[in-house]
Design a protein that fits this description.
Blueprint: E1 14-15, E2 18-19, H1 23-29, H2 35-49, H3 57-70, H4 78-88, H5 111-127, H6 130-133, H7 141-154, H8 158-171, H9 175-191, H10 196-206, H11 213-226, H12 235-250, H13 264-270, H14 276-289, H15 293-304, H16 309-325, H17 331-339, H18 346-357, H19 367-376, H20 390-397, H21 404-411, H22 419-424, H23 435-443, H24 452-466, H25 472-481, H26 489-503, H27 511-516, H28 523-533, H29 537-549, H30 556-566, H31 574-580, H32 586-600, H33 603-616, H34 621-631, H35 639-647, H36 663-680
Antiparallel strand pairs: 1-2
Helix pairs in contact: 1-2, 3-4, 3-5, 4-7, 7-9, 8-9, 9-10, 9-11, 10-11, 11-12, 11-14, 12-15, 14-16, 15-16, 15-17, 16-18, 18-20, 19-20, 23-24, 23-25, 24-26, 25-26, 26-28, 28-29, 28-30, 29-30, 30-32, 31-32, 32-33, 32-34, 34-36, 35-36
Length: about 675
């Protein structure tokens, strides 16, 4: 099985963590008798040899040995090895249309060598793909479950593959394998137009009785992805009925085994939902339905009102992707998610809180349930722990004043979670009673600790939002007392200066120290603060002009922002701002354009920058829209951008790939400002 493995020059090859000399041990570990050793070996393959989807020279050298392993029936856990081969060959890539061109490199972040390695890996696995044919009827159901995707992606004979999958479907008795076969047929229909029609006909047949509910759900999900016109007109009630019928069949089954090994693979297995199969079925359907938000909302409402807790839990997790990517009216499903907070199922309550925490003001329909949980259970506060309780954080992020008493209690505890300061920012004036407590805790922040900045920054942010200028002495204590060797001292000083700026004239006693900062690394935030506190143009203009000239350092953008707040009095900066408006960096251009409007009021050069930045980087749209609000009628030439944004079904940050914790909040703010722009016109 490992013949020739020691003759390979592993030491001259690399993986994610350097020399690949440990790879033979990982390969041998995949065939070990001990299940924990096999899992650790698979963890090592994904963690180093195929790290985050990368393909190294050592990854290529592993392929023949991986094929040897899957060909020996006595090796346990071969299904995971088949999945590894599929992933190495690019089976997880979204660019599925690249399957037909086996020589085309897949673009990645690892340079030309990585591209070549990926292309060679795909070619190598295609060359050995005949081995997968013999595994279609393997004795191990996990192998049979993994094989359909491998055949579809790499065998290169779509007619033959369709025949193999449909023939096996007739003989297969294992439910999970039957679902994988249906998924394989759907993938085949999407990737190979030549067999699309017969594959779709097969899926359509699988959607009907007498097939079991799970298989019918799988077929519907695949149809939604490859032939949505073949979906039944009554899709939502059909899916809900099938889901509940399936749940009645599987209810009472044992909890899936949760391995205890301390590996990435083991961790992912422990994180799997109680009904992983049901989760995957509905995830496939939701993903395929995409922008059909009305159908997806109706599906969620059907799931969330069912009897089965696992179905409801799956629905809660499914909702997160919908809320994050698409714009729609979500009051009803969010209220239903709030109802899950009263469940006896800890897993379901955890899911509901996690989703509500990400919704900010959109969580309002669930606020009553969140408030009841916070008021009845101090554990929901995170009291006495280094993290803020997620129910309390969700309630505060929703802007609900009922979070204030609990936050006050948390602020009196020996350990104050850093998230408290950030959570208070969303409560607005309702959080004013917390200001004295925030001030007190700021006064307790150590002057010389690795934790100084992390503890101070959230408190400063909250005090700044509340404009609690009584905290000036505590701010100055940190400004004067933090040693020059303090970790993140410049960041701390910038945060302190920014807070003083929010206090305005109430921070006049701080002007001497702010003036001292005008010649240091925190000159720009100090100048911005000094203008807000004292309004001394002669003092603040030189450091802000220096900041404008420092493109690419992180100073130009905040300097432009500060000059914009100065307004027409900063006219001397207009030539430099016009130069910065031509910067290669989109955020610098955007900030300069905003400042040009706020200082000179000339829309022509501003709108030109806004139009290009709007399309170049969707993340700039919030900043641009806020400026368009200030521009009023002068923004009319770019109203087409605003109309298009309001008409777009997808959230603006979803276009950029991935997601952040504040994406929903920022999108809702963008929509609010876009409406304001048009209302003003």
């Amino acid at each position: 099985m490992f013949r020739g493995i020691d003759e390979v020059g592993w030491a001259s090859m690399e993986h994610a963590y350097g020399s690949a000399e440990d790879v033979p041990g990982l390969l041998r570990g995949l065939a070990a008798a001990n299940p924990e050793e096999r899992e650790r070996a698979l963890d090592g393959m994904y963690g180093a040899v195929h790290h985050q989807g990368d393909v190294y020279d050592s990854t290529l050298a592993c392929i023949p040995f991986l094929f040897e392993l899957v060909g020996h029936a006595e090796v346990p856990d071969r299904g995971g090895i088949v999945e590894l081969l599929v992933s190495i060959g690019g089976g997880d890539d979204d660019a599925e249309d690249a399957v037909e061109d086996v020589t085309a490199p897949v673009r990645g972040e690892d340079g030309e060598d990585g591209d070549d390695n990926r292309a060679m890996a795909r070619a190598a696995i295609r060359a050995g793909a005949a081995a997968f044919v013999g595994l279609v009827a393997d004795e191990d159901p996990e192998v049979r479950r993994a094989v359909p995707a491998a055949l579809v992606r790499f065998l290169g004979e779509p007619d033959c593959v369709l025949g193999l999958l449909t023939e096996r479907l007739d003989a297969e008795e294992e439910g999970g394998v039957r679902l994988a076969l249906a998924e394989g047929i759907g993938l085949l229909a999407r990737l190979h137009a030549g067999v699309g029609a017969p594959a779709v006909d097969c899926l359509t047949a699988l959607c009907a009785a007498p097939h079991e509910p799970g298989l019918r759900l799988a077929a519907l999900g695949q149809l939604a992805g490859c032939a949505p016109d073949r979906l039944p007109a009554d899709l939502v009630p059909t899916v809900i009925a099938l889901l509940r019928a399936r749940s009645r069949c599987v209810r009472g089954s044992e909890e899936p085994e949760r391995t205890g090994t301390d590996t990435l693979v083991g961790h992912l297995r422990r994180m799997r939902p109680a009904d992983e199969e049901g989760s995957q079925l509905l995830r496939t359907l939701h993903t395929a339905l995409g922008s059909r938000t009305a159908d997806r909302i109706a599906l969620l409402e059907g799931q969330l009102t069912g009897e089965d807790a696992a179905d409801r839990c799956n629905a809660v997790w499914m909702s997160a992707g919908l809320f994050r990517e698409w714009r729609a009216s979500y009051e009803e499903p969010i209220a239903l998610i709030g109802e899950q907070l009263a469940s006896d199922e800890e897993r379901l309550r955890h899911a509901a809180v996690s989703v509500l925490e990400s919704l900010f003001t959109l969580a309002a329909p669930a606020a009553d349930r969140l408030a009841a949980l916070v008021e009845s259970d101090p554990h929901a506060w995170g009291s006495g722990t280094p993290t803020l309780g997620r129910p309390l954080k969700a309630l505060a992020r929703a802007g609900d004043p009922r979070a204030v008493p609990a936050l006050a209690q948390v602020l009196t505890q020996p350990v104050v979670p850093n998230e408290v300061g950030h959570a208070i920012e969303y409560l607005g004036p309702a959080a004013a009673p917390l200001a004295p407590l925030l001030r007190q805790r700021l006064g307790e922040v150590p002057l010389d600790s690795r934790e100084t900045y992390g503890r101070a920054a959230p408190l400063l942010s909250a005090l700044g939002r509340l404009r609690h200028d009584a905290a000036v002495p505590e701010v100055l204590r940190l400004l004067h007392g933090a040693p020059g060797t303090l970790s993140l001292r410049d960041s701390l000083v910038s945060a302190l200066a920014g807070t003083l700026g929010t206090f305005g004239a109430g921070a006049r006693t701080a002007t001497p120290v702010l003036r001292e900062l005008l010649d240091g690394p925190s000159a720009v935030p100090a100048a911005a603060a000094l203008w807000a506190v004292e309004g001394d143009l002669a003092a603040v203009l030189p450091p802000l002009m220096r900041g404008l000239a420092e493109e690419g350092t992180g100073h130009a953008r905040p300097a432009a922002d500060a000059l914009g707040r100065v307004g027409p009095a900063a006219a001397a900066a207009l030539p430099e701002l016009r130069r910065l408006a031509e910067s290669a960096e989109v955020w610098e251009r955007t900030a300069a354009a905003c400042a040009l409007w706020d200082i000179a009021g000339d829309p022509a050069p501003v709108l030109r920058v806004f139009r290009t930045a709007w399309h170049e980087n969707a993340y700039t749209r919030g900043t641009i829209a806020a400026c368009l609000v200030r521009m009023g009628g002068a923004a009319e030439p770019v109203h087409d951008l605003v109309h298009a944004e309001l008409a777009a079904p997808r959230r603006h940050r979803a276009r950029s790939g991935g997601y952040g914790s504040h994406d929903i909040l920022e999108d809702e703010r963008l929509l609010r400002d876009c409406r304001t722009v048009l209302d003003a016109a």
